[in-house]
Amino acid sequence: MNARIESVQILRDAGGNPAFAVIPFADYLALTQGKTNTEPGIPSGVVDLAMDNGWTAARAWREHKGMTQAELAQRMGITQGAYAQLEAKKTIRKSSREKIARAMGIHESQLDF
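Now predict its structure.
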């Protein structure tokens, strides 16, 4: 079971119904400060595009968002040809993934599949 779930304690009322959840203080702080440890997911449409067409994650995301290579390259400050080379790679360096993700408006971990 998930360690995060195991560390939660449920307090019940007199009728046996859940009344309170006690969580570790660090988790409480993360929740109240908007700093959850969850990473965003990947829409099934993006995964389907990648798997059905043999595309890289970067291309699937770009197609999903309806962007051209030229538009994305412009946002990144590089040429379309340079972006095309990045997009064609199965494995992209972390720094390049971060730049592509920022230009697409997604989290860089969403390009890592």
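The mean pLDDT is 89.
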